[in-house]
Amino acid sequence: MFARDIGIDLGTANVLIHVKGKGIVLNEPSVVAIDKNTNRVLAVGEEARRMVGRTPGNIVAIRPLKDGVIADFDITEAMLKYFINKLDVKGFLSKPRILICCPTNITSIEQKAIKEAAEKSGGKKVFLEEEPKVAAIGAGMDIFQPSGNMVVDIGGGTTDIAVLSMGDIVTSSSIKMAGDKFDNEILHFIKRKYKLLIGERTAENIKIQVATVFRDSRHETIEIRGRDMVTGLPRTITVSSEEVEEALRESVSIIVQAAKSVLERTPPELSADIIDRGVILTGGGALLHGMDMLLAEELKVPVLVAEEPMDCVAIGTGIMLDNMDKISSRRFG
Ligand SMILES: Nc1ncnc2c1ncn2[C@@H]1O[C@H](COP(=O)(O)OP(=O)(O)OP(=O)(O)O)[C@@H](O)[C@H]1O
């Protein structure tokens, strides 16, 4: 019987699903819209994301995995089931194996519940795996050799930094400083400096369109609209790359410090390999302008952004499922 293996990147910001032989078949934001009065799920994914900050009182658009932890388990479960059911797993010839990458810091009870949700949705065997390992594999690193590889995965809720060798993590750190916090810093900067209230989506847009974290490396501006805190009326302002660099400086330095501390704890032979091979950046935060330049300057090692950094975990799940027997994956249950 032919069963297609399924890999899922259950991320704070986005859920990606990889199906063997087909590639990435689903890529949607991790957002669920709920009717507060009836607790009914109204929309999931992109449709729900369009509602963020724009819902009437009785509807809430929730990000159930906010801050790299499962903030609302029932909704996470509903979202996972919705996405798996969308693939019509039950229509597969035989039950597929499912490999799920979820936030690093979730509890063992949550791990078990995620596994059960995937099994109920049609998975025959469900495995969970650590995100930085899978991201490194998806970025094309051969982590199974006895040599050091370093990956910095900057997602929505967490930044995972790891040095890997012989298929496992040697030293690592997971911090709750990533894309969402950057958005928040931008939002607060605009509020302080211009007395203007903006939404999370506008802040993210500023980050993507004009931000840089490496001084004097980008010179762009963007016009944004928000609500004036004094008059209460809509107002338009122009924000520059230089201002956003200032807004993000402190947050980004926390990532730099965490990466330095991982390197300090790395055995010297592996550090030498990292100097030769460089550090690979994955996750959406790898696309933040200047991140590679800043890390290269601070860590004194070459830093490379992975090709398609936001797809690395999903692609990595596919490679891992193909090589399952070689890999000492963590199985639950
Ligand atoms: N071009 C860009 N520049 C800067 N940031 C970006 C860009 N594109 C996406 N991002 C940010 O990347 C983040 C999402 O990345 P990703 O999809 O890798 O996270 P995730 O895997 O869902 O999160 P986590 O790893 O924390 O579970 C968001 O904060 C988003 O704003």
From TrEMBL:
Q: Does the keyword Cell division apply?
A: no
Q: What is its main location?
A: cytoplasm
Subcellular localization, as worded in the UniProt entry? Cytoplasm
Q: Name one GO biological process term.
A: regulation of cell shape
Q: Which residues bind ATP?
A: 12-14, 156-158, 204-207, 284-287
**What keywords were assigned to this record?**
ATP-binding, Cell shape, Cytoplasm, Nucleotide-binding
Q: Which GO terms describe its cellular component?
A: cytoplasm
For this UniProt entry, the molecular function terms from Gene Ontology, in alphabetical order, are: ATP binding
Looking up NCBIfam families in the UniProt record yields:
mreB, PRK13927.1
State the family named in the UniProt similarity comment for this chain: Belongs to the FtsA/MreB family.
Role according to the record:
Forms membrane-associated dynamic filaments that are essential for cell shape determination. Acts by regulating cell wall synthesis and cell elongation, and thus cell shape. A feedback loop between cell geometry and MreB localization may maintain elongated cell shape by targeting cell wall growth to regions of negative cell wall curvature.
What is said about its interaction partners and assembly? Forms polymers.
Q: What is this protein called?
A: Cell shape-determining protein MreB
Organism name: Peribacillus faecalis
Its gene name is: mreB
